[in-house]
Design brief:
The protein is of the alpha/beta class. It has three domains: about 210 residues, 3-Layer(bba) Sandwich (FAD/NAD(P)-binding domain); about 110 residues, FAD/NAD(P)-binding domain (3-Layer(bba) Sandwich), CATH 3.50.50; about 100 residues, FAD/NAD-linked reductase, C-terminal dimerisation domain (Enolase-like, domain 1, 2-Layer Sandwich). The protein is about 30% helix and about 25% strand. It contains 13 helices and 22 strands. The strands form five sheets. Strands 1, 2, 3, 4, 5, 6 and 17 form a seven-stranded mixed beta sheet that branches. A hairpin with a 2-residue loop joins strand 12 and strand 13. Helix 1 runs parallel beside helix 8, helix 3 packs across helix 4 and helix 3 packs parallel to helix 6. The longest helix is centred in the first third of the chain and has 25 residues. The chain starts with a strand and ends in a 7-residue tail after the last helix.
């Protein structure tokens, strides 16, 4: 059995783990990172990156079809989805290798295998060929991520019932796809698959698609989905399914208790994720979890002073950028610096990469009122921006939630083309404690989609021009 001595050991090389490793190396710590699969974790390999590669290809495909409006006839008969799949895997592999390069550049030791914490300061790693390594470290960061959540009666077999991983690995498109769960992942897959010609049906238990987003923003996407013949069932439960000669027969129940049957070739279940906190040795540390989540302090310390936890295994939004920032905060605390404690939840951006895109941060008006603010909202339509109209992207809105007394920005909710990019101007203003007048008075290039942000701020000041 080999032995490694290091300052910091990190269990998991996803966006939380590998970013923490690089930051620790920058701060002069000797770092060892342990990963049982590929560097980059779920995000780079079976999550954010390959799905965005598929989304890009879907948009290329849709735009090619739109060329007919210019009198161009395109022969789409040679379309082969397996090539789309290969391009998505190429993007994932390239970025995973890029993380490997960053590990070498920063002199971070990578140990491949499954890690189990035996005691504070000691991790046993079982390698792919049954070899074992003991990693001794003063500090440990647990960054083991999460996996798709299944629901009773719909266990994943990755043949008929798919997880998000199984959907990413499809090399052929189903003719009919049912999706249980209309959150960000469900809506993104609906966008991808329908773009390539699959008949998609979305089923959501709550009263709107994208249940955590602003209702008006969700309505923009729902309207676009309906134009694209994506069927949407909200306030609807899936009771079970049967496999028949014609495919899958899925039983649904509406709010009144009426039952109907949905036919599909494959069923994608995306109803959340489960933290990977089992079988990593928490029982050896007397660290207890709450529904699989590890409680942490201001700097992501667990109940043991030299063991930290970040990312999907703690009670913060399951987002790659959140895990990365948490990793930086934990490492800076370990290195004796004084980072700002935790992440302000009101400054976390949310992004849904459909078309139109949905992006947000902070409070909705309803939640702001519940918190005691005298809240109002200003909503500027995309159709009021010349760039949006010129690029056939006129459907959408920028909504700013603000306090009427102080004019403090409380949140932003954007639905429309490039929403995930233009959100950050408002987020920067919020984090810098700027007021709407500061953005309203700033010259924005014309024509740009960012003018929608300027105009929404002018609305707050009673001075909007293009509405």
């Amino acid at each position: 059995m080999s032995e490694i001595n290091t300052d910091l050991a990190i269990l998991g090389a996803g966006p939380g783990g590998y970013v923490a490793a690089i930051r620790a190396a920058q701060l002069g710590l000797k770092v060892t990172i342990i990963e049982k699969d590929k560097l980059g974790g779920v995000c780079l390999n079976i999550g954010c990156i390959p799905s965005k590669a598929l989304i890009h290809q879907a948009e290329v495909f849709r735009h090619a079809a739109e060329a007919e409006s210019l009198g161009i006839k395109l022969d789409m008969s040679g379309f082969d989805y397996s090539r789309v799949f290969k391009k998505s895997r190429s993007a994932a592999d390239r970025l995973s290798k890029g993380v490997g390069f960053l590990m070498k550049k920063n002199e971070i030791q990578v140990v491949n295998g499954t890690g189990t914490i035996l005691e504070p300061g000691l991790i046993e790693v079982a390698g792919p060929e049954d070899g074992k390594t003991h990693v001794k470290a003063k500090d440990i960061i647990i960054a083991t991520g999460s996996r798709p959540r299944s629901i009773p009666g719909f266990d994943f077999d990755e043949e008929d019932v798919l997880s998000s991983t199984g959907a990413l690995m499809l090399k052929e498109l189903p003719e009919r796809l049912a999706i249980l769960g209309a959150g960000a992942i469900g809506c993104e897959f609906a966008h991808i698959m329908s773009s390539f010609g699959t008949k998609v049906t979305l089923v959501e238990m709550l009263d709107q698609i994208l249940p955590t987003e602003d209702p008006d923003a969700a309505k923009v996407l729902a309207a676009d989905f309906k134009k694209r013949k994506i069927d949407i069932h909200v306030k609807t439960r899936a009771l079970g399914y049967k496999k028949t000669k014609e495919g899958l027969s899925i039983e649904l129940e509406d709010p009144e208790g009426n039952k109907n049957t949905l036919k599909a070739d494959k069923l994608l279940v995306v109803v959340g994720r489960v933290p990977n906190t089992g079988e990593i040795g928490l029982e050896n540390l007397a660290i207890t979890t709450e529904k699989g989540v590890i409680p942490v302090g201001d700097y992501y310390q667990t109940s043991l002073p030299h063991i930290y936890a970040i990312g999907d295994i703690v009670s913060t939004p399951l987002l790659a950028h959140v895990a990365s920032k948490e990793g930086e905060i934990a490492v800076e605390h370990i290195a004796g610096h004084s980072p700002a404690p935790r992440i302000n939840p009101d400054l976390i951006p949310s992004a849904v990469y459909t078309e139109p895109e949905i992006a947000s941060f902070g409070l909705t008006r309803e939640k702001a009122i519940m918190k005691g603010f005298s809240a109002a909202e200003a909503s500027f339509p995309y159709r009021g921006a010349g760039k949006a109209v010129a690029t056939d992207a006129a459907e959408g809105m920028v909504k700013i939630v603000y306090d009427t007394a102080s004019k403090e920005i409380l949140g932003a909710h954007i639905a429309g083309s490039r929403a995930t990019e233009i959100l950050h101007e408002v987020l920067l203003a919020k984090s810098s404690e700027l007021l709407p007048e500061d953005i309203a008075s700033m010259i924005h290039a014309h024509p740009t989609l960012s003018e929608t942000v300027m105009e929404s701020m002018k609305m707050i000041e009673g001075a909007a021009i293009h509405i």
